[in-house]
Amino acid sequence: MLPYGYPMKTIWKYELTPNRLQSVSIPHNGQILAVKANADNVPMLWVLVDPEMPVEERRLGIFTTNTELPDNPGQYVGSFTLYEGSLEFHVFDVGAI
Fold first, then answer.
1. Which strands make up the sheet holding 10-15, listed edge to edge?
2. Using CA atoms, how far apart are residues 35 and 56, in angstroms rounded to an integer?
């Protein structure tokens, strides 16, 4: 059992849209753990968060294979495929807005 007042974290799941740039509301200092498409071909993002922290908008860049990326696309998060691998996407954390 954890002592009273011990900071608790939890894992939140976010649904993404496979477009170039999007923002996601994540508590400050949230740690992105994984990105993966579910069985319905919906990309999902899992983030370790402290729900007591203020929420900030984090910008994500999502790019398909064989497309141009900015010179500094951000921190690589992971890749996922849709429709049995026929579409490939790569996710980058651009940072807080």
1. 10-15, 43-49, 31-37
2. 19
Amino acid at 54: P
Q: What is the pLDDT of residues 15-34, one digit of tens each?
A: 999 888 999 999 999 999 99
Could you tell me which of 16, 11, 52 has the C-alpha nearest to residue 32? Answer: 11
- Tell me if 44 sits within 8 A of 4, measured CB to CB: no
Residues β-bridged to residue 35: 45
Q: Please give the Cα distance from 66 to 54 (Å, whole number).
A: 37
pTM over 0.90? The answer is no
Tokens of 33: 């753990």
Distance CA 37, CA 25 (A): 19
